[in-house]
Amino acid sequence: MLSANPVKVTDKYASRREIFGWAMFDFANQAYTLLIITVVFGELFTTVIVGDRGDGFRLANFLWSLALAVSYLMVVVTAPLCGAVMDYRAEKKRFLLISYLATVATTAMLYFVEPGFVVIGLLLIILSNYAYSMGESFIAAFLPELGPPEALGKISGFGWALGYIGGLFAAGFTLLVLGEASAENFDRIRWVGPFAAGFFLITAIPTFMWLKERGTPQPRGVSYRHIALTRVTSTFHELRHFKDLTVFLISLLFSMAGVYIIIAFAFIYGAQVIGWDASVRNIMFIIVQITAAAGALGFGWLQDQLGAKRTYQMTLALWVIAIVAIWATPQVTEWVNVRFDVMWQAQYVFLVVGCLAGLSLGSSQSASRALVGLFSPLTKSAEFFGFWGLANKLAGVFGIVMLGILQTLIGLQASILLCVALFVMAMLICSRVNERRGREAALAWEGQP
User: Fold this and answer.
1) How sure is the predictor about 18, in pLDDT bands with cuts at 50, 70 and 90?
2) For residue 103, is it left (φ>0), alpha (ψ between -120 and 50) or beta?
3) How far apart are CA 375 and CA 33, in angstroms?
4) 268 φ, ψ (degrees, to nearest 5)
5) Dihedral (C-alpha) 197, 203, 208, 210: value to the nearest 10 degrees?
6) What angle (nearest 5°) sits at the alpha carbon of residue 43, between those of residues 117 and 279?
7) How far apart, in Å, are the Cα atoms of 295 and each of 129, 314, 341?
8) Closest CA to 32 of 159, 170, 147
9) Rounded to whole angstroms, how far apart are CA atoms 74 and 133?
10) Which residue in 16, 7, 204 sits closest to 96, CA to CA?
11) SS3 call for 152
């Protein structure tokens, strides 16, 4: 069996500069998530590049969900294999660099996707989202090395919060300078790909300057393929020693399915169901970024006080409330107008809902990443975060494909209620997780008291 040299769990923090360098990758990669997947290019792809073909954008929405699902399925297949190699060869930083450069290159090429260029658009979204998602797993694998277990929630929350601040800068500039995602404004808004790529390229430089590669690389006489298959096979058998991690990853499969639906369709929902103006969309973006950063920081601190599992459960309950509010916005607005004889617009009521969604988004992602860090032995951190990436992206495949098919049958508004069922199921499964036992299993694997 192939094994990496042990790395002792520390009760010390990494340097502030290194933690900041690690968090800067979250700051940098939010340009891709927000500009390409959530705010701008997703809407541009569905409404302009594919467009309404007499079906209320249902084909466009389905193609968008298909592209994301394929990219996530690619992550499902490769993330644990890459994680195994990274642990054995102590090459987390090298793999992170490759994924980063691939994301930058394929994102910049989105400039060449014009109305009607559907196949090219699908291909570039698949490749860029795959590279971005792999990098997301690779950077998370460094988390257990940055501080003592009881501080991982705070460190993870700092990273997510800085990420949303980065998104605020990147997308704020784009929305103000490049304008709306419309056919009339296409010649300007098509620059969103190169801008997102450039932002990621420049602002992630501190990560590669200051983040350290720990661990001792093993001999190079063994091929990557052999390392990957041998260690991943071994880890699958060893998962019986990490019962709580396994159960949590199943819970994560359901919760992240709901989160990925919201990330992929929230602003499409605003355009197609709510019918918001470009100015309201911009305000919503700012609200979500601020509340998500606050949620990541606040719940990160709360996690270190109350425990990771309890905090994670609280974030799921908050998600259920947010989804019901998203679905009910048009009906509630209409009822208020009739009942109180006012003329409220649904798009402004939707801004209030955005606060709930933002808090839920930042807090749930931060809590889940920290909980995996607590349950992961350091000698298998990249590999276990590869499984975290697997659960995340398998969730993306599952959730987005289900939503894509469901919205073709009953429309986007009714389909969004699928997320409520997903979050409730995640809460029920997570109730079986024992945080203390999971942490003790990770320490026992390292041979520590």
Assistant:
1) very high
2) alpha
3) 27
4) -65, -40
5) -170
6) 135
7) 25, 12, 35
8) 170
9) 10
10) 204
11) helix
CB-based contacts of 436, cutoff 8 Å, min separation 6: none
Could you write out the DSSP letters of every residue in 52-109?
--SSTTHHHHHHHHHHHHHHHHHHHHHHHHHHHHHHHHT-HHHHHHHHHHHHHHHHHG
Alpha carbon distance 238, 189 (integer Å): 49
Which residue is it, tokens 């000698």? Answer: 379
Question: Quick one: CA torsion of 37, 41, 44, 49, rounded to 10 degrees?
Answer: -100
AA identity, residue 214:
R
CA nearest to 196, candidates 32, 40, 41: 32
pLDDT tens digits for 247-276? 998 999 999 899 888 877 888 888 888 988
Determine contact, residues 228/85, Cβ cutoff 8 Å: yes
Per-residue confidence band for 232, with pLDDT thresholds at 50, 70 and 90: low
State how far the alpha carbon of 55 is from the alpha carbons of 60, 61, 258, 261, 407, in Å.
9, 10, 25, 21, 11
pLDDT of residue 182 exceeding 80: yes
CA distance 378 to 141: 9
User: Would you state the pLDDT for residue 108?
Assistant: 98
Backbone angles phi, psi at 221, to 5 degrees: -80, 0
Token pair of 222 as six digits:
């063994």
Q: What is the per-residue pLDDT across 366-382, written as a single tens digit (0 to 9) for each?
A: 778 778 878 877 767 66
- For the record, the structure tokens of 180 come out as 């709306």
Instruction: Summarize pLDDT for 129-172 with one digit per residue, the tens.
Output: 999 999 988 898 888 788 887 777 788 888 878 988 898 888 77
